[in-house]
Amino acid sequence: MDNDSQLVARVQGGDERAFAELFRRHGDPVFRLALSILGQGFAAEAQDVVQEVFLKVHHALASFRGEAEVGSWIYRITFNQAVNLKARARYRRPHLAEAALAHAAAAEPGPHAQLETAQRDHALWECIQTLPEVYQSALRLYYWLGASVADIAALLDVPENTAKSYLHRARQLLGGMLKERGYSYV
Amino acid sequence: MDPSEAEVDSLLRRSMAAPVPRLPPDFNQVLWCQVRRRSERPNRSGQILLAGYGVMSAAASIVVMRGQGLGWGVIAAMTLGPLAMVEGARRFRTR
């Protein structure tokens, strides 16, 4: 099986199937990275990011000279594209899927507990929004999308220790912010 | 992981648990249609027409600017500057 560089060479030679193979390899990671930046409730926007990223990749592959790894290059385009989209759409509220709402409602027994959970989750959501983008992305990849530290490192193009320190620092910052707001999170 | 960090860890696991969206199964076909549409080059006669219009506009602008007493340096900057900006923007977008 061809590696990414060989696929790029084939795309540059006009082989359309090689581009389809590149998408098959990197489509899902790009979608997950976009989701991790945009957050829950923005799946449609994440799909738009994937489409835009691969259109850019297809256009730019003709002049790609292999100075960076193909995967890292694609993920960097994705990160920038998603951060730009997020900056433009910051005023919008996420449109949560019904399944997600049902999941949240079923998790707690009584209305009081549900309210407390909702308030705490909202406070947590607000605190997460104030973290640097890479911390937010690392948190969502790890806790929501189930990515490993190695996956996070690959998607954010950083060493694994750096990915670990993003998670560690993000948890510390969140703990401090929630305490300031008077939330007990045990 | 210290105890307070472990508590935040536990809270994050509970709060962020939600279904993970997936790309639709036909997404690659939609993408491929978009790729084909964008990579279609404008037809030859359209390109010639557009280039002719650009040359005529530039020539008319140069005549008018000369008529206003502007020097060749200023005229060259005002004519070629926008072209350089367009090319720069195009390269920036494809980076």
Structural class of chain A: mainly alpha
Total DSSP E strands of chain A = 0
In DSSP terms (H or I, runs of 4 or more residues), the helix count of chain B works out at 4
Q: Ranges of chain B with pLDDT <50 over ≥5 residues?
A: none
The CATH topology annotation of the largest domain in chain A reads as Rna Polymerase Sigma Factor, Chain: A
Most extensive interface between two protein chains, with residue counts: A-B, 44 and 33 residues
- The pLDDT mean of chain A sits at 85
Number of helices of chain A: 9
Biggest sheet of chain B, in brief?
Answer: none
> What is the radius of gyration of chain B computed over CA atoms, rounded to a whole number of angstroms?
28 Å
Task: Please write the string of helix (H) and strand (E) elements of chain B.
Answer: HHHH
Helix/strand/pairing category of chain B: mainly alpha
Approximate shape of chain A: elongated
| CATH 4th-level superfamily of the largest domain in chain A | RNA polymerase sigma factor, region 2, helix turn helix motif
Describe this structure in words.
The complex is a heterodimer of chains A (186) and B (95). Chain A is mostly helical and 186 residues long. Chain A folds into 2 domains: 4-88, RNA polymerase sigma factor, region 2, helix turn helix motif (Rna Polymerase Sigma Factor, Chain: A), CATH 1.10.1740; 98-180, Arc Repressor Mutant, subunit A, CATH 1.10.10. Helices cover 74% and strands 0% of the residues of chain A. Chain A contains 9 helices and no strands. Chain A has helices at residues 4-12, 16-38, 43-60, 70-88, 98-106, 111-129, 133-144, 149-156, 160-180. In chain A, helix 2 (16-38) packs across helix 4 (70-88), helix 3 (43-60) packs across helix 4 (70-88) and helix 8 packs across helix 9. The longest helix of chain A has 23 residues, at 16-38. The longest helix of chain B is centred in the middle third of the chain and has 24 residues, at 44-67. The mean pLDDT of chain B is 85. Chain B has a domain at 44-95. Chain B has 95 residues and is mostly helical. Chain B has 4 helices and no strands.
